[in-house]
Amino acid sequence: MQKAGFVSLIGRPNAGKSTLMNSLLGEKIAMVSQKANATRKRSNAIVMHNNAQIIFIDTPGLHEKEKVLNKFMLDEALKAMGDCDLIIYLAPVTDLTEHYEKFLKLNKKNIPHIIVLSKIDQVSQEKLFKKIASYNQYADNFEALIPVSIPRKVGHKDLLDTIEKLLPESPFLYDPEDLTSELIRDIYAGFIREAIFENISEEVPYESDVIIDSIEEDHSIDKIYATVIIEKESQKGIIIGKKGEAIKRIGKVARRKIEELSGKKAYLNLQVSVKKGWTKDEHFLKEIGYDNAQ
Length: 294
Ligand SMILES: Nc1nc2c(ncn2[C@@H]2O[C@H](COP(=O)(O)OP(=O)(O)O)[C@@H](O)[C@H]2O)c(=O)[nH]1
Ligand SMILES: [Mg+2]
Known about the structure:
The protein is 35% helix and 24% strand. The chain is built from nine helices and nine strands. The radius of gyration is 20 Å and the shape is globular.
């Protein structure tokens, strides 16, 4: 008997959704950042566990919307939430339960969910038990509550076993050898964005994006040509840096992440281009793939 289904990772920005997805897959494909709101689009990871094929959908965080780009991000999360077999609601162990109450209201279709208490390595046992107890009052709403720590590798097996139990019977939906149904260019664009988040401070990463112009694959080396878009002329100096040192560092960090996934040498060419007000430009956002109709 095979099981298969879609499991959306839902939670506030910075809860650890992308980190958890990478960790369950055992490969890094989703970008991760200490800064909130780094994940912009849905992405997925196909994880085989016993006789189940679990397709995890990573989403941008649930947050207040302002710009058109942020509205897109919230819609992405809400869409993934309404369109899956099971939801993993990620709550950092330090979060107040009122955030969970907000999530319950957003889960209009009442899709079954598991609460994952994340980052439990950040608190004492006593605090962890208190937090678990504070979710008891909602026990009728959730299927399970599972504490997880990525650095301590706690909770993974428990989580996968629980998901397996809750998934519907179904033949596999993807080739069991596949890691993701995503395009490699989207994964690479994410790695470059991650490198920008790691190396550039303040608001510039939020006002930048990456377009992969082309990938030339060879048996020994992949050549990747990409453009970093920014909102303002004044951000050019920040992203390029003195004598180009910032963009070089971004390129180097991103190239390493790409090589780690591909297992091959990579050459990465980064151009910088100013596109005034792109985060508010609905037409342009659609053009570069931020399209909820997709
Ligand atoms: N200490 C600790 N940090 C974590 C854990 N999981 C994620 N993080 C960190 O939390 C930050 C946000 O993670 P990310 O996966 O980007 O969150 P997302 O916005 O929900 O996708 C990153 O700096 C991660 O390294 C965990 O279990 N323990
Ligand atoms: Mg994320």
